[in-house]
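Ligand: flavin-adenine dinucleotide. Inputs:
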Amino acid sequence: MSILGTQERPLRVAVVGSGPSGFFAADHLLKSLVVCEVNLFERLPVPFGLVRGGVAPDHPKIRTVTKVFERTAAHPRFAFFGNVEIGRDLSLEELRRFHDAVILAYGAEADQRMGIPGEDLPGSHTATEFVGWYNAHPDFRDARFDLSKETAVIVGAGNVALDVARILCLPPEALAATDIAGHALDALAESRVRDVVLLVRRGPAQVKFTLSELKEIGDIPGCQPVVDPAELALNPESAEEINTPELARILEILGEFAARPADPAARRRIHFRFLAGPHALEGEGEVERIVLERNRLAGPAFGQKPWATGETFPLGCGLVFRSIGYRGLPLPGAPFHDKGGVVPNTLGCVEDNGRTVPGLYAAGWIKRGPTGVIGTNKADSLETVKSVLTDTAGLAPCPEPDTEALRALLRARGVRAVSFDDWRVIDAAEQARGAVLGKPRERFTRVADMLAALDNAARAGGDTA
Ligand SMILES: Cc1cc2nc3c(=O)[nH]c(=O)nc-3n(C[C@H](O)[C@H](O)[C@H](O)COP(=O)(O)OP(=O)(O)OC[C@H]3O[C@@H](n4cnc5c(N)ncnc54)[C@H](O)[C@@H]3O)c2cc1C
Ligand SMILES: NC(=O)c1ccc[n+]([C@@H]2O[C@H](COP(=O)([O-])OP(=O)(O)OC[C@H]3O[C@@H](n4cnc5c(N)ncnc54)[C@H](OP(=O)(O)O)[C@@H]3O)[C@@H](O)[C@H]2O)c1
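Predicted complex:
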């Protein structure tokens, strides 16, 4: 029997999910001395996970990381299986029949809940819905946001919260030349939202957003950031927590915002409210107000928690966006840690009740939880790939090391797998749609339309042949 990881019998690895962690894992595998074949599975016909569906449209430079992923995809021992959902089109067990190792890199697509009364009233949305909607993600194409309301509240103080605030407040002309979904551009152009309130349940020393994103808030044309200087006062523990130049600069910028004179001509305002937690959402059939609770901090420096003081006060608003973090979902057949919303693992090796599951690994947000920027996933995936490579000699070879048999199984099930070349066709079609509108791309918002673009291109190719 040939040895796994050789030219004669490459190590066959399936990666589930084509976001940064999936692509970085594939890249590390293909560059290793162990000869690997990588099949990467993605539930959508289009790759790149949150790089396509999360990163804000006014941040095009961040999306250029896809060039790195395209180089990985060009490797002769790499294959993309878009439009194949593991757990629906193919079970994890079946996937393991065709691969010696499987890396779960399927992200964290659900949301944390606030757990307060009125959370699900109409008008209360997750940031995930709004982000997916403006980025044309097929799951959220039908989402609707009542932008006729004047006040929107965003709960949370992470970078996603700032993305949502910025997109709500940027003038339409600043978004028109981006790849924002056409439906979102049209709706935002009509938006009557004037005041956006960012609710931070702890203090300014505990915010999760980063400096460059905060600076951008201060640079939105026609938009005034508003900070109450009294809310910038720090207790001794918080003062101790200001231990990086970045955090010190964040405090300075918030101070600059607090010192800005009121601009009566401002079209929009972004208010930062510190030490204010969500207590309840109220309204007759829809959100009319959020009841806030004044918090104080308790605990040692770097471990301070928000404690409700019992003092509550209402804030009128017609829209609420919960931006309090993402949450992983279980994949049928894979172990899952419900409380943490992750696949339990040590160094990427998946564990079931504390016992390692041979040949099953995890990477990215589903491995460590929904934090970290794109680059964080590179080192994270490397850690997982090192575990795979260390295990290689002891892995049981899969019973069916045959990608053609896998393709035949998918075809027999009526699953239309989309290759990376197919994605390039969809990509070109989206760019062509965008060019007509003066945008870098106009995305398809339906899976059916993505697949139809492939049929159209095939017909056009046939016509010219
Ligand atoms: C709104 C938002 C904006 C962000 N902006 C930035 C930014 O500007 N800069 C930055 O550095 N970082 C940003 N990040 C963070 C960055 O996007 C993440 O660190 C990164 O995407 C996580 O990578 P991942 O591969 O683990 O997950 P994901 O990127 O979520 O990829 C998971 C992939 O798995 C697929 N999938 C899910 N289930 C299945 C299944 N059953 N079968 C097959 N495929 C499946 C999904 O469709 C998805 O494509 C942002 C995050 C969010 C939420
Ligand atoms: N431009 C970029 O680089 C960019 C853009 C978007 C996202 N990202 C990255 O993607 C990751 C996810 O971002 P994220 O913003 O979703 O998560 P995050 O950074 O973890 O922020 C979540 C925020 O929600 C707050 N929160 C949690 N539960 C709450 C509750 N019940 N009530 C009120 N507030 C609550 C948290 O406060 P506590 O601190 O008190 O818990 C925190 O401020 C981050 O690592 C982020 O940096 C990067």
